[in-house]
Design a protein that fits this description.
Elements lengths: L1 H8 L16 H20 L7 E13 L27 E11 L4 E6 L8 H18 L8 E4 L3 H11 L3 E2 L2 H14 L2 H20 L14
Parallel strand pairs: 1-4, 1-5
Antiparallel strand pairs: 1-2, 2-3
Helix pairs in contact: 2-6, 4-5
């Protein structure tokens, strides 16, 4: 009876909590609330604003390596009475790779894999940004001296890539990196455009939510 009243009469539903990175402090919420309308105003003044933005960041990918040689492939010719060859069972080994990737509203601008053992400290990241700058000068001449860097861990793009390679086992780290690169290259320009258009919606939602997290809230825009 109580359930009927709650669900049918009151129209309520029971939903799980949305996991968020952290609880925002009042100052952080205020900053989000104030910055969002400023960005919307700048976008209104300059419709081409987002075309000057290059978004990028680093993301970890975890892969499983496996032994490429099957039991049958390891067979050997032996004389009668010879002991049977032994082959140690290899367990899957988990390999972690870091990708640093930058993209604009049309596609990937620059990407590179961080060498194994390399810690991404400020000096190393400065070198990456210098290589990005040279790349922009070479391939994005129209915004070469007027582009804006938006540093972010690009969750929507990395999630798409991680989903595409999830469950696959690779013989070498290089094979895994090639697989990720192929997925990145297959992302269409329309998908990048959609990603950039969603930014404007997120700015409006940020204003309406008072700077709070709104993922999963089904916020309706005015």
């Amino acid at each position: 009876m109580v359930r009927i009243i709650i669900t049918e009469d009151l129209g309520m539903t029971k939903i799980c909590a949305k996991m968020v990175p952290k609880n925002l402090a009042p100052k952080q919420r205020e900053t989000r609330k104030n910055v969002a309308p400023d960005m919307l105003e700048l976008r209104e003044i300059n419709p081409e604003l987002l075309n000057r933005v290059i978004t990028g960041g680093e993301s970890f990918f975890f892969f499983f390596q496996y032994d490429p040689q099957t039991k049958r492939q390891s067979s050997q010719w032996c004389s009668n009475g010879s002991p049977r060859p032994k082959k140690a069972r290899m367990s899957k080994s988990k390999v972690k790779c870091m990708l640093v990737c930058f993209f604009d509203s049309k596609g990937i601008v620059h990407k590179e894999w961080v060498p194994p053992g390399q810690t991404v400290i400020q000096y190393y990241y400065k070198e990456i940004l210098e290589r990005l700058h040279k790349r922009v000068l070479r391939v994005l001449v129209n915004i070469a001296y007027d582009w804006i860097l938006h540093h972010n861990n690009v969750p929507s793009r990395t999630a798409l890539v991680k989903t595409a390679v999830k469950g696959h086992h690779f013989q070498t780290t290089q094979d895994a990196q090639k697989a990720v690169t192929r997925v990145l290259e297959d992302i269409t320009e329309d998908e990048f455009q959609t990603c950039y258009h969603q930014r404007q919606k997120r700015w409006r939602k940020s204003v309406q939510s008072g700077g709070n997290y709104f993922e999963g809230d089904n916020t309706k825009l005015d």
